[in-house]
Design brief:
The protein is mainly alpha-helical and 145 residues long. It contains 4 helices and no strands. The protein has one domain. It starts with 6 loop residues before the first helix and ends with a helix. 31% of the residues are buried.
Length: 145
């Protein structure tokens, strides 16, 4: 059962949970209605849990395996793709979903299936998640020495 003591897995999972908890807390203080625990796992918002997870993993890989290792190169590429996707692809498709929802409402059309619009992240949310991941990656690395 080495999976649960792996600093790589621990950093990514811990960063995810901390980011989602912070996202819920930030939304609560911003005055949004948070009636259910479902808010803890929705996408979008500050900080990006995706960015926090991949940044935390990248930090642990860098410290444990070295920044000149092949696995660090892969982790860096993986982090870059995830963060780019959060800002560019997911954000754009979320905005398109909002526009579609407006069109359905404006023209009083009933979609065959109801749909949820999942928003992506702003650059600020991704940056916030990356900084959080960096901190959590450092904490996990030094705590597991």
């Amino acid at each position: 059962m080495r999976l649960f003591v792996s600093p790589y897995i621990l950093a990514a999972v811990f960063a995810w949970f901390v980011a989602q908890g912070l996202k819920y807390t930030i939304a609560m203080y911003a005055g949004r209605k948070l009636g259910s625990m479902r808010q803890l796992y929705l996408s979008g918002g500050m900080p990006s849990a995706h960015s926090a997870s991949v940044a935390a993993l990248l930090v642990v890989v860098g410290f444990k395996d070295g920044i000149d290792s092949a696995v660090f190169g892969l982790a860096l590429l993986f982090a870059a793709v995830v963060m780019y996707d959060a800002i560019m692809v997911r954000r754009s498709s979320g905005e398109q979903g909002v526009a579609l929802r407006w069109l359905f409402h404006h023209f009083k059309l009933k979609p065959e299936n109801s749909f949820r619009t999942a928003k992506g992240h702003t650059p600020k949310e991704v940056f916030g998640g990356a900084i959080l991941g960096l901190i959590i990656g450092l904490v996990v690395y030094f705590a597991t020495l």
